[in-house]
């Protein structure tokens, strides 16, 4: 169990310090009590310590990263007790370098089966592959009519 964060898009000190605090916070963590915020991760960083996370009580924010892969492959449930921007349980935003040669390409979440509250926003991720294959309506609670913004990169030859 780990606490999680509520920093939104704030960078904690230098990029190196920010990454170290992410590592310290989520290493060997299975349940995040508040929010899982993965931001400002540089290219070629190893995020395998995130593989243990299975449940997030608040929201998941993945933003402003240049790393190729963010492995959340064991994440099963996002409760959405707190929502990003008062709307989203999962927000994947602007994960690329200005020159667009680097950026998030893979976000494996093959075990994600339930988002109890809140919507999904995927926007401005020019290198991100396969998000259009996710059956979001099977994962989110559509009876609550959560806001959903799904902007996928088009014509990705690298996928």
UniProtKB/TrEMBL annotation:
> Any idea what this protein is called?
EGFR factor
Database matches in SUPFAM superfamilies:
L domain-like (SSF52058)
An example Pfam family from this entry, by short name, is Recep_L_domain
- Ranges where the Receptor L-domain domain occurs: 28-139
- UniProt xrefs under Gene3D superfamilies: Receptor L-domain
Keyword tags = Disulfide bond, Signal
* InterPro entries membership: Rcpt_L-dom, Rcpt_L-dom_sf
The reply to whether Translocase figures as a keyword in the UniProt entry is no
> What is the scientific name of the source organism?
Chloropsis hardwickii
